[in-house]
Structures are given as structure tokens and as C-alpha cells.
Design a protein that fits this description.
The protein is an alpha+beta fold. It has three domains: about 30 residues, no CATH class; about 40 residues, no CATH class; about 80 residues, no CATH class. It is about 30% helix and about 15% strand. It has three helices and seven strands; from the N terminus they run E-H-E-E-E-E-E-E-H-H. A three-stranded antiparallel β-sheet has the order 1-2-3. Strands 4-5 form a two-stranded antiparallel sheet. It is elongated, with a radius of gyration of 34 Å.
Length: about 160
């Protein structure tokens, strides 16, 4: 590394430095080196102290030299659980809306239809939408660990099993 200041002799005298000849007013206290680490028996060397690819999906920020360090990575299901629960709640709300819109209230023979019936009672479009949505739960994903959407709601995720 070489540092020079042009156009200002006094500043150059103060800051000039050449690491190859070790001359100038500054002194190199710690020689720059690449970060070296071993992950699962594999030696790795990087020009930065931030390692983003070893192991994949993990970012390591190296702050000091140590002879031995253990990194423990754990799985956190919290966000997945919250997202699934939110989705289930939204689906249940949709089912409630369909039920309200297609509600049937029985009447005695000879009476007129109840005004308590849902606005879309008997509407085939609503039934078609309901059938299409339900079919998505029954369809299996070919490459998925979960063969149906219903399998996502499991006691392991803190949701009731279907």
C-alpha cells in the first residue's frame, strides 16, 4: 500500500507511506490478510470479513481471530406458523362470507320466501367458486412434502389437524 498527497508538501510529509519500503510517517500495525476459516472440514479464504456463501444461506461476520468457534443454526417455525395461521383465518373468513351470502332460512308451506335468506342464495357462481377453491385443497403437489393443503395444518405447526 502506498499513500501520497500531491499539491500539499506538508500534508504529504505527514501522511505519506509506502508499505513496500516501510517508509513514511505512518506505521503498519496489522498487516491486511484475507479471512481464513474452516467450515465442516473445508478451508475457506475470503478477501472480506463478511462471508456470505459458507455455509450457503448463512452470513458470517468475522470480528476477531479465534482458534475455535461453534456456530449453531436452528430452525424458527414462528414466521411460517404465523403465515399459515393468517392464511387459515382468511380462508375461514371467506367461508363465513359465502355462508352468509348463501344462507337459507326455511319457511312454512304457503309463506313467502324469508327476507333472512342470503343475497346470493341459489347463485351457481358462488357454488362454482367454492368448488374450485375446495378442489385446490384436494390436489396434491407432485414435488411437495405436503400432498394436500390440508396437511399443512398439523399439530406440529400448532394448528388443528384436518
Amino acid at each position: 500500500m502506498k499513500i501520497t498527497v500531491e499539491g500539499d508538501t506538508k500534508l504529504n510529509d505527514l501522511l505519506a507511506y509506502d508499505s513496500t519500503t516501510n517508509t513514511g510517517n505512518m506505521q503498519e500495525l496489522v498487516k491486511a490478510e484475507n479471512a481464513k476459516l474452516n467450515v465442516n472440514g473445508i478451508d475457506i479464504e475470503r478477501q472480506s470479513n463478511t462471508v456470505t456463501d459458507a455455509p450457503q444461506g448463512i452470513t458470517l461476520t468475522l470480528t476477531k481471530k479465534v482458534t475455535d468457534a461453534t456456530v449453531t443454526v436452528t430452525k424458527d417455525d414462528t414466521k411460517a406458523k404465523e403465515a399459515i395461521k393468517s392464511w387459515v383465518d382468511a380462508y375461514n373468513s371467506l367461508v363465513d362470507t359465502f355462508s352468509s351470502l348463501t344462507k337459507y332460512t326455511a319457511v312454512e308451506p304457503g309463506e313467502e320466501a324469508s327476507d333472512k335468506n342470503g343475497a346470493l342464495l341459489g347463485d351457481s357462481v358462488v357454488r362454482t367458486i367454492q368448488t374450485g377453491i375446495r378442489a385446490q385443497f384436494a390436489n396434491s403437489g407432485s414435488n411437495s412434502a405436503f400432498k394436500t393443503m390440508a396437511k399443512l395444518a398439523s399439530p406440529r405447526m400448532g394448528l388443528p389437524a384436518n
